[in-house]
């Protein structure tokens, strides 16, 4: 099966599987009191060049929701892009974890919020009838496959800070965003004003592991209770932490992300050259959104390529996601089939 | 380190680790639409000899809380033993997942609720001022290391049914309870009136995998949404399901549990023969609670044996938990050290 | 003070105050088991020409939130106008009462949702990643002072029914909407597909009394527990019910609403004739939204007329609300002042 | 009907009804921005001899739950008497308002918690598996009709403070407790360590009005949002505040409470002198719990006296509550009937 459905259709990186086996020797203190978890905390502090509080969890939804729960009261508002994962794809998890906060969806080209739009949307502070502005959440890389620049993040952070809001970054594809530019993890986060990061690993090679990275110590105070009470404190935590340790070792996370991004570039460049195909957004990480002739879509699906249509069927838009293990031959096969369809069309 | 702290201090069974590697080939549909998850569902139906709805999750707290959430309204009451994991050890997870239901803790010898105590405690049905009786939750094996008999379960189920309550079984150590007797999984659950089971695997050899097994189809209707919204729907579900599949293959789960129970029997029999030691509860699964002379406790800890004191320190009570990978030599070393301490004392 | 700030700036109708005194004789069974509450239930069944379940509460926010809570699961979605009171003015009450459901704000001219817009917005049913469509809430009269026609309500109800959604009507100004047309209470509600009505009385002459009127008996099953648990079950319920009884007696509710609407017509007709003034929406009930020259606004405020600016100050929009006790002389004084300001301007 | 069912079976005091009429002149700013509300705040500061934040609400359940919600996180624990109203009679309201905190019911003679019992029960602070101790709630006068002494309150407060817990007082019958002794409102509350008081008026002559009185300013910060979001912010707030103002004017609240307590003393003294009758608890406020011969109970009910049996019917226990408007003739009639029944028996 040649699949471009999602990076979570991939399996796990071999280095990460091996780390699980290596972590398996003998007894270890449960619930995160083990040595591997301590090392992951230290390694992330090193990578982000600052003190951080790290909480491993198994899913991106848990990472996002717990991050928001320590920033946002039940009567709070969270500003996010209208296509954000937290708004569209988590079945109301942020509302559940915060005790009923309201997400305020904002429009924005190519999956990104602009600072001016954010600034204009924030309202109601101190008004007892209105939910209280509490946090902004941005996705890096975005749901449209684009990447926020440092200036864009800093601009949003400035608005957030001016209104006393926390800034959360959903980094399910943080590695893909990072390698898309020339900035350090620190620059892309706390140095630009990010308070809490959902640091994703699952989509980029882990079996199921994410780390919440908190740059403000006060956010960590109640995190542990909230994680436990949500059922996200693993007894055999070493097996989450071992995934993260292997992910961060020898730049595996960066190498995997570079490969995925390179495959997306190869695929999107090829597609853009085919008659009748247009890209919906700049391809900056590992996701491609494109409009194809309907006949081409049908043809590709009929040949067994697996991918999702996006939005209303009449739009003829598709999403193609590459991964750390995408085979360049599969990319080329897809492009060849698309070209052939274009010719036939 | 010789550890009897908990079965979750153990690592994973080799068969289960191998299954992760085997599950890793190529792309798979995410979120449980993969082939392994389907096979686990079928296998559990076979094991329980009935139609079941199966939802893999990663932690016991998630399994318990989600099970209760589909049975209990926000204004509901859940009856459980006062020492139950859901009451004492989940930081309020059932309250979180149900939207604020009340747990009603009941006393009972050796970690078990009696039907007559349950019957006397149920009150308030139809009274608008009172939380509404909604479910009973029992732990099998119990938090005291004992096992409910079929008759005991059926007695509780009869009371529950008479009052229109659901019956949940926290089976974090279900395998240990099962192999302690001569009954089938079906007899120990739905044939005795159990509606929902948290079927544990983590403590008995998995890295982090449990299955919620629902015996009433109507309970499954909203489960998926609740699981997703709690962040417990894994994108790469195959890695949860692969753990469960290996756990159930070739009776691994039963073999592991038999070993753990045998080690507990060996340890408790040995302990009971030492002067000054008394067992707090019958040892029926893989947990031992015992009162030891204070000097003996201090001596054992000083020699590097790792285990928990239980309750107030003045009680001189300890908990010892054996596991699927407990080495008989460690048991014997512990007994030898205890005997020596008794002699010195 | 001549105030057009809101109908809740008014006091109570004398008939309703007198009813409180009349209700005060001797002991009565608490919590709604009194005779007055029973009579209100019967009277509302008569008025709506069908069986209804009636739950008196003291505020509109409570009425709305409790109505939604019995229709919408925690993982549900509620479709409403983007200016709806439940979305903008209740500090997240629907989210609190439903346990975290998501409100989906919809655009629509003059404060009303169109059926086609609703139909296009409903999505995600059966998709485990998405909140589940559960209810539609419309406001009658709307937040823009307009009134849904029977055909408009029926059109929305048809879409709702086709998707299995409940239809809630926020009737904080139900009386004003009713007397604006020629339809019966039954036609305006259940005969057009409404399942639950927040039947307002506070804004139209009560001290603080609303009735939730449920047209589907199954919605009533858990309502009582939810009301109690929210602290909205009054011990001395007779004093809520007495307000409602007086409100419904001798058509007081209709007379009060007719007066308020007539005052709004007089005020808006007068305003529309003044140079530089334009009405933002058709004036169909007792609220007027109008754009005035900035100098005129400043002038009126300076003279002591009390009203709210609406939206951004640069818009020069104001809201004027009339009430059951609005004095025509105050209307005329306001118009005279506005005319004078226009002349000066 | 001669009713001793509850003080909430009474109507309203005439002074309070009159105050509603007096408050009804003309327009007033809604939502608590009116003059009467400001005066109530000032009057309570005077009565309690300190700065206070005052939030009027309509029910005791709302007052209790909102008070706890600003003290207790979702993962918190609230210690209370096992017979406390918040535990037994509010259908889980504290759990709803706190987002799922756990109530820990404590035993205690005559409806009161002892400091030593409280101290022994507090556990789990800093343990991520346990709900976190957050508040103590005591009822004054208690559910058994007894009154905490200053020393008892101070003892509980000392334990609470030592563990960093807030201290809430459910004062649904605060006036009855106050006039039972010789202490000032300040002494009975913040001077003894109380942080938040549900100051009841409904049971003692209001139609439906309570005031949350916060002695710690930081507790007030989020109270307004929580009250609004719960639907307990009244638009025509003046009608709540007018009740409270009249309640506090000319010592009406103290006079009413003295009458109710005097009637309870008369009734209990009379009862205690009748053969076969025994009082269950000291009668210190306006509630009497007594064991009567079964024939006497049946006889009294048959003659039309209205009151509740308490607990299991076989106990032959009844509750009798007197009120601000209890007629001494009714007390005497009840005593005469009981005496006659005793003679016949």
Sketch the topology of chain A as an H/E string, one letter per element.
HHEHEHHEHEHEHHEEHHHEEHEEH
For the termini of chain A, the CA-CA separation is 25 Å
Major sheet details of chain A:
7 strands, mixed
CATH H-level homologous superfamily name of the largest domain in chain A: Type I PLP-dependent aspartate aminotransferase-like (Major domain)
Number of domains of chain A: 2
What does this entry look like structurally?
Four copies of one chain form a homotetramer. Chain A is an alpha/beta fold and 345 residues long. Chain A has two domains: 2-7 and 252-344, Aspartate Aminotransferase, domain 1, CATH 3.90.1150; 13-251, Aspartate Aminotransferase, domain 2, CATH 3.40.640. Chain A is built from 14 helices and eleven strands. In chain A, helix 7 links the parallel strand 4 and strand 5 (166-171). The longest helix of chain A has 21 residues, at 252-272. The first copy, chain A, is globular and about 60 Å long. Chain A starts with 13 loop residues before the first helix and ends with a helix. Chains in contact: A-B, A-C, A-D, B-C, B-D, C-D. Chains C and D meet through helix 1, helix 3, helix 10 and helix 11 of C and helix 1, helix 3, helix 10 and helix 11 of D.
List keywords for this structure.
homotetramer, alpha/beta, Aspartate Aminotransferase, domain 2, 2 domains, Aspartate Aminotransferase, domain 1, 345 residues, 7-stranded mixed sheet, 4-stranded antiparallel sheet
Q: How would you sum up this structure in a few lines?
A:
The first copy, chain A, is an alpha/beta fold. The first copy, chain A, has helices spanning 14-22, 35-48, 60-69, 85-88, 93-98, 115-121, 150-162, 174-179, 185-188, 223-229, 238-248, 252-272, 294-302, 328-344, and strands spanning 53-57, 76-81, 102-106, 132-139, 166-171, 196-200, 210-214, 278-279, 287-291, 308-309, 317-321.
């Amino acid at each position: 099966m040649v699949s471009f459905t999602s990076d979570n259709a991939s399996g796990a990186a071999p280095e990460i599987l091996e780390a699980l086996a290596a972590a398996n020797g003998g007894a270890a203190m449960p619930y995160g009191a083990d040595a591997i978890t301590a090392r992951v905390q230290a390694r992330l502090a090193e990578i982000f060049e600052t003190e951080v509080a790290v909480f491993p969890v198994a899913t991106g939804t848990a990472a996002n929701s717990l991050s928001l729960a320590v920033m946002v009261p039940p009567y709070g508002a969270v500003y996010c892009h209208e296509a954000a994962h937290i708004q569209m794809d988590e079945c109301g998890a942020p509302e559940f974890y915060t005790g009923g906060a309201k997400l305020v969806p904002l429009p924005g080209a190519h999956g990104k919020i602009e600072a001016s739009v954010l600034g204009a949307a924030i309202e109601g502070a101190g008004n007892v009838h209105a939910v209280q502005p509490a946090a902004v959440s941005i996705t890096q890389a975005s749901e449209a496959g684009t990447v926020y620049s440092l200036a864009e993040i800093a601009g949003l952070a400035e608005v957030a800070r001016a209104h006393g809001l926390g800034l959360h970054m959903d980094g399910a594809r943080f590695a893909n965003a990072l390698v898309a530019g020339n900035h350090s993890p620190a620059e892309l986060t706390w140095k630009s004003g990010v308070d809490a990061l959902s640091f994703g690993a699952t989509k980029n090679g882990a079996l199921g592991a994410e780390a919440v990275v908190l740059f403000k110590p006060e956010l960590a105070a109640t995190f542990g209770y909230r994680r436990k009470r949500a059922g996200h404190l693993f007894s055999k935590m070493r097996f989450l932490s071992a995934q993260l340790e292997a992910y961060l070792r020898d730049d595996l996370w960066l190498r995997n992300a570079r490969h995925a991004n390179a495959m997306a570039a190869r695929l999107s460049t090829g597609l853009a050259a085919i008659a009748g195909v247009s890209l919906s957004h700049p391809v900056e990480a590992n996701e491609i959104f494109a409009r194809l002739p309907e006949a081409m879509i049908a043809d590709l699906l009929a040949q067994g390529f697996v991918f999702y249509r996006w939005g209303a069927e009449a739009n003829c838009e598709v999403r193609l996601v590459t991964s750390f293990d995408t085979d360049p031959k599969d990319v080329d096969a897809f492009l060849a089939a698309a070209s052939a369809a274009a010719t036939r069309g």
